[in-house]
Design goal:
CATH superfamily of chain A: Malate/L-lactate/L-sulpholactate dehydrogenase, NADPH binding domain
Protein name (chains A, B): Bifunctional delta(1)-pyrroline-2-carboxylate/delta(1)-piperideine-2-car boxylate reductase
Structural class of chain A: alpha+beta
Largest sheet of chain A: 7 strands, mixed
Radius of gyration of chain A: 20 Å
Organism (chains A, B): Wohlfahrtiimonas larvae
Keywords (chains A, B): Oxidoreductase
Oligomer: homodimer
Family (chains A, B): Belongs to the LDH2/MDH2 oxidoreductase family.
């Protein structure tokens, strides 16, 4: 069915209110989910509320805690989410990160002890709107085997980057899992009884498999072989021990049964081109524009362009398409 | 033949002295090449001198200029190499980068207008020895087509990361091209008249090819499809316009015929775990050790381990194996 963006927002707020979330956490979560849904980033849209409430019911999401700034010195900020949603931590940490990046040229935000269920592009778009370059990484649960191995030592570990462009609504921005495919894709193949593509998973014996059910008993593979594995391992270290938070393996061990959303950390680095470039900023920015425009001229789609198009379309008409069953399922989350 | 490390070092110094290099630039280049050669990182070892001298002869390497610190404020340092070797810029920039990272927690070094012919792990190992986490990126020449396109808009754009470990000689460190294979590999296949593996190159018409000669007329591909392409594009922006230096395309256009070594920039980010972690540093570091040790226990080789083994072996015996023809070729570079 078609639902107005406003109605969907009200539904999300109603669910979170009925579950005892504080208003600021409710707003942070709602804004994130609606932003993703309006952009037709379905994997991180409102259906995530189903998982989020499961985490809440299992005691792995604190609806009323307030994130605390635990470190704020030099170019480093740390925010302890106290098991609230990562977005709530961003609301407190991002303004400080922006301030420090503009002061020192580069700064780092560690978001600790958060429940993570969202796309990273949302917070990086916020940085790009402030004309900052951004990098973000987070761990998840250890479902991915390193290249050359069979033991799942890595999470799906997303990696995201944003570069502000002349059109503030269309930065150069990517955000992808470092696994060869999304875990949700494998689950979808299992449900539809269809075969997996090659090179995305191994079975419990470490043999390559196209059978989604065998894959779920085995492990996923990293994208790009040993190179993707190396990047994913970097993410484990950067969003894990570097900020004194959990690796994907530790997060999985900490998860209570049925609480599927990772509990752990996120690291965000912001860089201010203005400080680096000074009076050369305009010409350098223009060269970047000219460079990126060549991709479009050569009919190569830049990351996120499909998403931008969807957002423009949905914002203009004020409504979005949503599966009837999903809306019904969401409504059952309201506790009277 | 076997040659002692000392003899090889003397040969390199003799070549550079005979070509009019200043002593500090000579030492910076020599140290880098010997370090790579001793580690059996052949692709970045002493054979690179052949290309380096070609660049010199074409007027695209300044043997006597002195890199200048052009920006040194907050957490950002910029060093203008004035068309000297990147290593010379590191000698001046890295101590400042280390100082700033330890002061602010994170810092950024931009090396501009350098001739780049070396592996990035050398400078990152230097950071790791100071217990810093490091990231490095540089552009090259535009030989790589983005996923979904045929026009070579990307360089082979290496990406490197280092994480200090308990054994200071064996950090977690990777350094790889974001192209599916090295350009030198394709040239080697052409010379040996052997076929390329799948998914590494396209011909001049944009069709996948296994023929190395067709590949050299066409374009290389990025590793990991659209994800590797996105990372390579990030590197173009970070090591190019962000630090007001050339993209791979611009560097290629600026290259005089026969001068194959890229002229452009490198970006290095250093992070001090001690500032982020404070009193938790030791326990967090130990968790990282335990985590990485699981790879080894599962018989998964970590990046650079082969290189570390070679270095230990060669240092112990004080000699390295080097091709006779290569030594003869190097000797012809000495100008009497």
């Amino acid at each position: 069915m078609q639902i107005s963006i406003n109605q969907l927002q009200e539904l999300v707020e109603k669910i979170l209110d009925s579950r005892g979330f504080s208003k600021p956490q409710r707003d942070a979560i709602t804004q994130n989910l609606i932003t993703a849904q309006v952009s037709e980033c379905h994997s991180h849209g409102v259906w995530r509320l189903l998982e989020l409430i499961k985490n809440l019911d299992k005691g792995m999401l604190n609806p009323t805690a307030i994130p605390q700034v635990t470190h704020n010195k030099g170019a480093v900020i740390r925010v302890d989410c106290q098991m609230t949603a990562a977005q709530y931590g961003h609301q407190i940490g991002l303004p400080l990160l922006i301030e420090r990046a503009k002061e020192f040229g580069i700064a780092l935000l560690a978001v600790n002890h958060c429940i993570h269920f969202s796309a990273l592009w949302v917070e990086l778009e916020a940085l790009a709107k402030h004309n900052l370059v951004g990098l973000a990484m987070t761990t998840s649960h250890a479902w991915v085997a390193p290249h050359g191995g069979t033991m799942p030592l890595l999470g799906t570990n997303p990696f995201a980057f944003a570069w502000p462009r002349t059109n503030p609504d269309r930065p150069y921005i990517f955000d992808f899992a470092t696994s060869a495919t999304a875990r949700g894709e494998i689950q979808l193949h299992a449900r539809n009884q269809t075969q997996l593509p090659n090179d995305v998973a191994i079975d419990a014996n470490g043999k390559p498999t196209n059978d989604p059910n065998e894959a779920l008993k085995g492990a996923m593979l990293a994208f790009g072989g040993h190179k993707g594995t190396a990047i994913s391992t970097m993410i484990e270290l950067m969003a894990g021990p570097l900020i004194n938070d959990l690796t994907s393996q530790e997060s999985q061990q900490a998860a209570k049964d049925g609480a599927a959303l990772p509990y752990g950390g996120e690291i965000i680095i912001a860089i201010d081109p203005e400080i680096i470039l000074g009076t050369d900023r305009q010409s350098a920015t223009q060269r970047a524009e000219d460079y990126l425009n060549q991709f479009s001229q050569a009919d190569v789609r830049l990351p996120s362009e499909r998403r931008f198009d969807a957002r423009d379309r949905n914002r203009q008409r004020g409504t979005i398409d949503l599966d009837d069953t999903l809306i019904d399922n969401l409504k059952t989350l309201i506790r009277n």
